[in-house]
Amino acid sequence: MSAIAAPAPEEQYSLPTGYGDTRIVLMVKDPWWLYAYWEVQPQVERTVRHQLTPEEVIGLQTVLRVYDVTEVAFPDHPAHRWFDIPFSGLAMNWYIHTNAPNRSFIVDVGLLTRGGRFLRLARSNRVTTPRVGPSEVIDEAWAIDDETFWRLFGAAAVGTSSSPSSWTFAPSSVHTWLPSGTAAARPALVQGFWCRVNTDLVIHGVTEPRATVSIQGRPVPLRPDGTFTIRLAIPDGVQTLTIDVTSADGTTTRTITPTVTLAWSGTLEPERPAKPFRPSGKPADRPSSGGAA
Amino acid sequence: MEPRGLLALVLHTHLPFVRHPEHPSFLEERWLFEAITETYLPLLERFHRLADERVPFRVTMSFTPPLLAMLADGLLQARYLRHLEQLIELSAKEIERTRWQPPFHRLALFYHHRFTTAHRLYVEGYRRDLIGAFRRLSERGVLEPIASCATHGYLPLMETQPAAVRAQIRIGVAAFEHAFGRPPAGFWLPECGYQPGHDAVLKDCGIRYFLTDTHGILFGSPRPKYGVYAPAICPSGVAAFGRDMESSKSVWSAEEGYPGDFEYREFYRDIGFDLDYDYVRPYLNGDGARLSTGMKYYRITGRTSDKQPYDPDRALEKAAEHAANFLFNRSQQAEHLSSALGRAPIIVSPYDAELFGHWWFEGPDWLELVIRRAHADQPDVRLISPADYFERYPTNQVLQPSLSSWGNGGYSDVWLNGTNDWLYRHLHKMAERMTDSARAHPQPDPLRKRLLNQMARELLLAQSSDWAFILKTQTHTAYAYRRIHDHLARFSALEEAVQRGCVDEGWVAGVEEKDNSFPFLDYRVYAG
Description:
The complex is a heterodimer of chains A (about 290) and B (about 525). Chain A has about 290 residues and is mainly beta. Chain A has helices at about 10, 40-50, 55, 145-155; strands spanning about 25-30, 35-40, 60-70, 80-85, 95, 105-110, 120-125, 125-130, 200-205, 210-215, 220, 225-235, 235-240, 245, 255, 260. Chain A folds into two domains: about 25-130, Immunoglobulins (Immunoglobulin-like); about 190-295, Immunoglobulin-like (Sandwich), CATH 2.60.40. In chain A, about 10% of the residues lie in helices and about 30% in strands. Chain A is elongated and about 105 Å long. Residues about 160-190 and about 270-293 of chain A have low confidence and may be disordered. Chain B has two domains: about 5-70 and about 130-265 and about 310-390, 7-stranded beta/alpha barrel, CATH 3.20.110; about 415-525, Families 57/38 glycoside transferase, middle domain (immunoglobulin/albumin-binding domain-like). Chain B contains 19 helices and nine strands. Chain B has helices at about 30-50, 65-70, 75-95, 100-125, 130-140, 160-180, 200-205, 215-220, 245-250, 270-275, 275-280, 310-340, 365-375, 390, 425-440, 445-460, 465-475, 475-500, 505-515, and strands at about 5-15, 60-65, 145-150, 185-190, 210, 230-235, 240, 345-350, 380-385. In chain B, strands 1, 2, 3, 4, 5, 6, 7, 8 and 9 form a nine-stranded mixed beta sheet that branches. In chain B, α1 (about 30-50) packs across α4, α1 (about 30-50) runs parallel beside α13 and α16 packs antiparallel against α18. The N and C termini of chain B lie far apart (about 50 Å). The model of chain B has no long low-confidence stretch (mean pLDDT about 95). The chains are: A mainly beta (about 290), B alpha/beta (about 525). At the A-B interface, α1, β1, β8, α4 and β12 of A face α1, α3, α8, α9 and α10 of B.
């Protein structure tokens, strides 16, 4: 890092609301919907407003004009049809419901007078929505009749109507690497109450750092300071542990055998929820209002 | 015997580029670590074993450049080993703790074995070089690796910036060649996002085929005679293979598919959430929030929160059953289609690779069993890679596939909605500025060349479709927002520096160290 303590560009930066352009960009969301974002500089709008008569300024409306330009060399040739979407002057983007698969569109952002005069501020790129349903065009060398096409492939193309709501796909495989353990990624609990109570026993101690310790005949690692800790999940009933501590030279061993009793009392079954509650069958997992080591 | 049907299993691997040398450990880097332990190592181990046993098979896998860059990165390799060593330590403690609970004790041993095996494979088996391990599979003829976009940019929403589309594809191909030492035959369009016309860009890069979703082909024009069961040749001459819905669904769908079986491991129960906080705290990230460790003790059990302990043996039996069922269904499907179509259908089944092992824990076992059975018992369905198809059927129908993706709804809704639409105003502007800068500096001085290359890296990293997706799913949104913000900030500062011809050397070196993907990148790809 630089010796001069100027803040890094990342700390100073904030996303701009615009870039000083006058433009509108059109995108395809799906066969029925487009999305447009735009920005118009005030001086551009002022210039356009100069073309208005004083009467026209009253009731002036900002609009998106959506042209259907399918297979038309627009604007040299007129659009098939168009419609206007009035919006508040503050809007900078819009979802446009064309409900028209397999058609091409261009959108103008502009000003509309009460008298119906439209003044363009910016014109978008051209987009084409995808077809929904099989093409009507048949290549004779690769012909397939309607009946065979639907019989063989129909299952994957079911629901091909012109409405987005009825066009639902089989579960798609899109996901991203959902972070492990994000709360939002965990499913909501199914109806009903559940709980778990587990009992872990912690055995800890300290000896000379070079001594050896074993519990139930298995070695336990010592920390450099000679302390050790072991955690055991314990089942119901009486358990006897054998802890052996042997001196570094191996000549002296001490054996300790603590006995631990785990007994449960209290009601296993909580108030019966809508769904029958079953203990999971593992003693240590048994729900209980009491129970101690 | 001539097979009645051809089955192309395609696994798409991708992770966003997440690498934060500025932090000692970073939560999102775990995405890579988990994928290595749960998906990449299990797949590599099984594929190499099958090849050693001379089981003939073909599997296709796409690799995105961010993943390739992370797998090859020394810092992340070292951090992965540290992560794995922590898991080994935790599983060893679990072996002790569960001594009196046989079902859990067995699982603790099971995980300990898995983690130590992963460690041995990673260090001794593959010498940290997983790309090399995949490359050897390709040299052995069992794996067909294919390329993908530079940073998994979703191309249909980049349509107004053709230079950006071209750069995503070209740099993706360059990264592939860098990793595999040969040009790719196939290409995975991120999210199967196909926009008519992009096939011509693929063609320019020497690509022979790509994959689309079902309706991309079915709704193509003229009407496809063979549906998705033969490739469509685009106007550019590049082939498009469409996804088979039936086989996809049986593996993917959580409700109807195999992964939802009650015997399989439950993804959402993990000791990182279930055990005593102080006990698991050393294995959590810096902020101490509970997270998944990868040690999961329960099976799906049913639609209940009262989960039963996982039994790996029973799960494996299920995987074998499901593998047999999958091939039986493909065989039936192939018989039905081949008699109706008059040629052997190619059934293309693409999946996210991370589904296998990470989400569907038994997925790699299932896949191995499918491969074994396809060889041993099912001579009428043969595994191939899409490219192999042309040797059998060189002549195919020419048609224009339709705009499509495999995202929910089949189009661009996932990456363009109220949660993430604001992104495109900035991404498009960055792409435009990058193009302008590239054209303005055809013969740069060394400093400007370096700055322009880093600008291109920042643009590419911001274009990753993962950010839009994360904003949509509302998990880790702060991270996604931060990434977009930082890449835009760096891009702008670099652009200014290019104009001025001078820069804070310490800052730019830091940026290059952080966002260090694509060392081979040449920004002039944007000049067209």
